[in-house]
Automatic annotation (TrEMBL):
Keyword Ribosomal protein (UniProt): no
Necessary cofactors: Mg(2+)
Catalysed conversion reaction: GDP-alpha-D-mannose + H2O = alpha-D-mannose 1-phosphate + GMP + 2 H(+)
Family: Belongs to the Nudix hydrolase family. NudK subfamily.
Gene Ontology cellular component annotations, sorted alphabetically: cytosol
Subunit details: Homodimer.
Protein name according to UniProt: GDP-mannose pyrophosphatase
Length: 200
């Protein structure tokens, strides 16, 4: 992590109650040659991984539904979002993380996954980088009912839905989680599940 356009970085811890919030002050070299002092608040919650699970034969995908307080505070009436299965790396590598999260959240023990993207979640304020995966599932991979960990007070509803229905939800604006939109668009573009016609 090197650049000749910033110097004199100073860091002040604002909060570490759950994750880490810092105020960073630094000198930045503008493209016109001027040095200016800037300040940014940066939230470090670690990196994460997410997966779209799909079944070609059944033409279904597995998603989750759970309460998200920040969305409730910003115009999401009941606070619930339909999302891909996802979680924080917690010092695992991304592949190990998403295999673990898949079993914990939706109850499927998968072995083969494919990484398709990695991207910063909200680069203006967060350090988090998301690792995006896809993976095929079958009924015989189900080992429990999922729902998340009681120790983390997770309360996750597992949704197995027809892919066509999910695509319709996407185009109707009923899916508003960025990570989920990214992987659903990947599935559509790459025809992970063939649809004769997509309504939107």
């Amino acid at each position: 992590m090197t650049t000749n356009r910033i110097k004199n970085i100073a860091s002040k811890l604002l909060s570490d109650n759950y994750y880490i919030l810092k105020k960073l002050t630094f000198d930045y070299l503008m493209k016109d040659g001027r040095w200016v002092t800037q300040a940014r608040e940066v939230y470090d919650r670690g990196d994460g991984a997410g997966i779209l699970l799909y079944n070609k034969e059944k033409q279904t995908v597995i998603l989750t539904k759970q309460f998200r307080m920040p969305t409730y505070m910003n115009d999401n009436t009941d606070g619930f979002l339909v999302e891909i299965c996802a979680g924080m790396l917690d010092k695992d590598n991304p592949k190990a993380c998403i295999i673990r999260e898949t079993e914990e959240e939706v109850g499927y023990r998968i072995k083969e996954v494919k990484k398709v993207y990695e991207a910063y979640s909200s680069p203006g304020v967060m350090t988090e980088k998301m690792h995006f995966f896809i993976g095929e599932y079958t009924d015989d991979m189900k080992v429990n009912n999922g729902g998340g960990l009681d120790s983390e007070h997770e309360d996750i509803e597992v949704l197995e839905l027809p892919f066509r229905e999910v695509v319709d939800m996407l185009y109707k604006g009923e899916i508003v989680d960025t990570r989920t939109i990214v992987l659903l668009q990947y599935a559509i573009i790459n025809r992970l599940i063939e649809l004769e016609e997509i309504s939107h």
